[in-house]
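Methods: example folding runs. The two proteins below were folded one after another, and each record is reproduced exactly as written to the output file, sequence line first and structure-token line second.
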Amino acid sequence: MRPYIVGNWKMNGVKAMLAEARAIDRAAGRNPGVDVALAPPATLIGPLRDAVTMIGVGGQDCHTAEKGAHTGDMSAVMLADAGADFVILGHSERRRDHGETDAVVKAKAETALAAGLTLIVCVGETLAERDAGQAEAIVGAQVDGSLPVLADPASAGLRLAIAYEPVWAIGTGRVAAVEDVVVMHAAIRERLMAALGEAGAAVRILYGGSVNAENAAALLAAEGVGGALVGGASLTTEAFLPIIAAASHED
């Protein structure tokens, strides 16, 4: 499987940052064995799509409905129309700040698939849940509850990726131990295989949570890690390019 490195810009980015996106795009061209993508704020999806040629462009969320009276929300159809080819769903910040349940994430995922988008579905436990020995159970339940129904399960590897992001490691500078990442990715793989059959083996499982130039090589070399969902380190070319390069070395 080709490594998949995705930058989630979150609520960061104005048009001046398109220069960073162009530089990342050029770097992706120098690392052809890696799939690279950026998820900018919705205001930049169209301009970023026009600015790059080598990388994927995605949204950070979508509504469960195709259209309607939902002030301030974005539908999957709108994301696709703006130039997005994928969407991140179920990020812990959405689950925490907006009360999104697994059922809501699943509904969003099915709407996004219908609009022709591919998916990155996020799962992850809190520190309290990990300390209580519940991490695998919590994450497994999120996988089971958030996965969309695929009309063609054999296409799962092309339509879906899972991002494991321990909540306590997002934006904190703390990173899960590599051995814990391996265990969790294996547990997620078991859930995917149970839900999708053999097609579950083709779904890439990304790690996210304070990924940076210093720890990327070790994380990406870990068994079962198919890429990274990168937050703050994806905002600058200087910080993001070493992560792409590390993925290239693991291809």
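Second run, written to the same file directly after the first:
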Amino acid sequence: MWLLAICLVAIPMASSAGVFISVNFAPPPLPLYAQPVIPGPGYIWTPGYWSYAGDGGYFWVPGTWVLAPYPGALWTPGYWGWAGGVYVLHMGYWGPRVGFYGGINYGYGYTGVGYVGGYWRHGGFYYNRSVNNIRTTNITNVYTRTVINNTTINRVSYNGGMGGVMARPTEEERLAAREPHTPPTGAQMRQVRMASRQRLLRASVNHGVPTIAATRRPGVFAGRGVIRARPAREYSRTGAHPPMHPFYRHPRPQNDHPYAHPQRVPRMHPPGGPIRRTPPPVHRKPPHRPCCGGAPSAASV
């Protein structure tokens, strides 16, 4: 099974509907990690995902920046989907539009539907600063558009089945699936092959927190630009909501100090009407009385 998995990794995909491998148990949740700085113009972010390698089990393929194979190409991430009693990995592909990827929220522009990280215009790619880590001065095609995610952000990594994302392709995504596609580039396939050989990237070893969660360039697993995953709490046990993705935050309120001028809250009276409070007693000075039993003075009468 191990040799078969390696061979399947090495085979380029001929169709967007191609199936990589099927497993009878679900992949782990998506790890939390930061995005490396973009290397230069023309690079598109491809999010990390869980793959499978025979007896080695699930292993993490780090997210990375990849040069687009041609101007106008957008990346549709792969996804795991429940079908026929097993979990099937549908491979990602390049195309003029982003298709269906299971409704999985991979972050950094891939919210589960489409891509909001940028767009092509006149042969150049324009990057949304709010979801991309842009720190190089040689990238001038940038803009800022806040992404507000109104849905609960979770780390589920598969579609369908028990606990999976219940998303179905839209009509636009169905049309995108029928368009001509380009399989993953050689750099992307090298990223998968190298990840399959890293013991620390196996879920059985890292327990869902890979030491190499993202890389700045494909196939470079050491040095600057290699990002570790951050441990995530087990929200399924506590019932708490998972943390927001670092680039998917609610818009800041106009008042930076919302508690500087709190509103007056009306007091609620108990049943039977408001409580009547007894006024405090008034302490008056007693009248002057002469000593020694003398007759009262005129002022005291």
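Comment on the second run: Residues 1-17, 234-271, 294-301 have pLDDT under 50 and may be disordered.
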